[in-house]
């Protein structure tokens, strides 16, 4: 049966001045949509507009790692007029509603890789990517981003890139990043993905995080893909990154 052409999903995404997706959490869902060839349209929202927009859609507030009550991605499933927020809730909904082709949301190896990547790569991205996000935000979004992030950090964003600090962060994480990359290769066999021939939610988690970094700063992206495993997963997911808006 031919795939439907009318949008099945409205994807609420985070806006930037490059007019493409740059949120790692949204990229994870966008990759699933692209891989499953689910027709969708994107609505980009500025940082300060996320809460009022999603609240206006009737979504229930939740608590994310950042402490936000409302966050992207959020989706509207147009055939049922169902609204869902947060990638952890959206991914299983898409899998149950559009089961073919399958994207296993998690696995024991995948969960281990994701947890270690969040701890290790997340720490260097916090240093290298977060302060550089300011460069791709509108003035309104910059003000919001600076105010909320600096309140959480307790210092200016620019301090993360102070003399020697960025290199210290990467040097401290070097061995652990390399270990995560090698872990990605452990179960793949001859296939290009974490679990072999077909992608899983873990592959899209990795590729989405790398693509996010690339939109913010090409130098940071090039640095991380020098490590084993990372570039291979990214390249394997390239066919599902063509739709960025």
Describe this structure in words.
With 245 residues, the protein is α+β, with helices and mostly antiparallel strands. Helix content is 48%, strand content 8%. The protein is built from nine helices and four strands. It has a four-stranded mixed sheet with strand order 2-1-3-4, sandwiched between helices. Helix 1 links the parallel strand 1 (9-14) and strand 2 (40-45). The chain is globular. The two termini are 26 Å apart. The mean pLDDT is 93.
Explain the layout of strands and helices.
Elements: E1 9-14, H1 24-36, E2 40-45, H2 50-56, E3 74-77, E4 82-85, H3 87-97, H4 108-128, H5 139-153, H6 165-184, H7 201-216, H8 218-224, H9 230-237
Parallel strand pairs: 1-2
Antiparallel strand pairs: 1-3, 3-4
Helix pairs in contact: 1-3, 1-7, 4-6, 4-7, 7-8, 7-9
Spans of at least 5 consecutive residues with low confidence: none
Shape: globular
Q: What is the first-to-last residue Cα distance?
A: 26 Å
**Helicity level:** 40-55%
| Derived structural class | alpha+beta
| Strand arrangement in the largest pleated sheet | 2-1-3-4
Largest sheet: 4 strands, mixed
pLDDT averaged residue by residue: 93
Number of helices: 9
Radius of gyration: 18 Å
Helix-strand pattern: EHEHEEHHHHHHH
Number of strands: 4
Share of residues in strands:
5-15%
Please provide a brief summary of the model.
This protein is α+β, with helices and mostly antiparallel strands.
Features:
about 240 residues; alpha+beta; about 50% helix; about 10% strand
């Amino acid at each position: 049966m031919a795939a439907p052409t009318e949008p099945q999903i409205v994807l609420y995404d985070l806006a930037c001045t490059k007019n493409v997706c740059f949120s790692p959490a949204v990229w994870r869902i966008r990759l699933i949509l692209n891989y499953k060839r689910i027709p969708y349209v994107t609505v980009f929202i500025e940082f300060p507009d996320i809460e009022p927009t999603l609240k206006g859609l009737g979504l229930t507030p939740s608590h994310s790692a950042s402490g936000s009550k409302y966050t992207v991605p959020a989706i509207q499933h147009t055939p049922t007029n169902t609204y869902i927020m947060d990638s952890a809730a959206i991914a299983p909904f898409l899998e149950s509603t559009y089961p073919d082709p399958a994207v296993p949301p998690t696995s024991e190896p995948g969960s281990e890789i994701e947890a270690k990547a969040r701890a290790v790569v997340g720490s260097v991205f916090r240093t290298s990517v977060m302060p550089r996000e300011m460069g791709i935000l509108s003035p309104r979004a910059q003000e919001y981003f600076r105010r909320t992030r600096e309140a959480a950090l307790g210092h200016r964003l620019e301090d993360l890139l102070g003399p020697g600090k960025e290199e210290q962060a990467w040097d401290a994480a070097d061995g652990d990043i390399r270990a995560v990359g090698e872990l990605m290769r452990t179960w793949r066999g001859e296939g290009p993905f974490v679990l072999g021939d077909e992608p899983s939610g873990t592959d899209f988690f990795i590729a989405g995080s790398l693509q996010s970094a690339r939109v913010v700063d090409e130098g940071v992206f090039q640095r991380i893909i020098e490590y084993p495993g990372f570039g291979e997963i990214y390249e394997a997911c390239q066919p599902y990154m063509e739709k960025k808006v």
